Amino acid sequence: MKKILLVLTACLTLVGVSALNAGDSAACAPSSCSKSESPCSNKDRVTSIRWIESVQHDLDADDCYVVLVGKITKKYKDETYFFTDGTGTIQLDSEKELPVGKNIVVRGRIDQAFLSIGKLEVEVCSWRYVK
Questions:
Q1: Burial group, residue 4, by CB count within 10 angstroms (0-12, 13-18, 19+)
Q2: Spatial contact of 97 and 126, defined as CB atoms under 8 Å apart
Q3: Is the pLDDT higher at 60 or at 87?
């Protein structure tokens, strides 16, 4: 029983630490994905939602910097948005207000589900309207 409690406590601690880091703007820096062997080494290229979903179970892709072009289809609660680019739909997490229905460019980090708890999403670092 003590071992189970210890493992559960360790998991909850890791979740808490990752939640604290999620709000850190320095965590949005693309430096964590600069390795050439990384699946997302092209940090300045536009990425598709289909590609993000294809690397969903690749731990090297977690926290990698991505650029998406598309539009917000729906806002859910305070910081959750649904975004589509024509190849699929993904959940965005943004502390900033995003425009629903407008074409935008989103820069952010892939945030994979921890231990398959939660959803695959992109944490928004910045956005702008498409020119």
A1: exposed
A2: no
A3: 87
CATH code for the domain of 96: 2.40.50.200
Place of tokens 């179970």: 57
**Residue-wise pLDDT tens digits, 4-28:** 444 444 444 443 434 334 444 344 4
* Pair type for strands 103-111 and 121-129: antiparallel
Domain containing residue 15: 2-129
Amino acid at 92: L
Counted domains in the chain: 1
Question: What CA–CA distance (Å, rounded) separates 115 from 117?
Answer: 5
Phi, psi of 39 (to 5 degrees): -70, -10
Share of the chain above pLDDT 90, in %: 47
Beta-carbon contacts of residue 13 (< 8 Å; ≥ 6 apart):
none
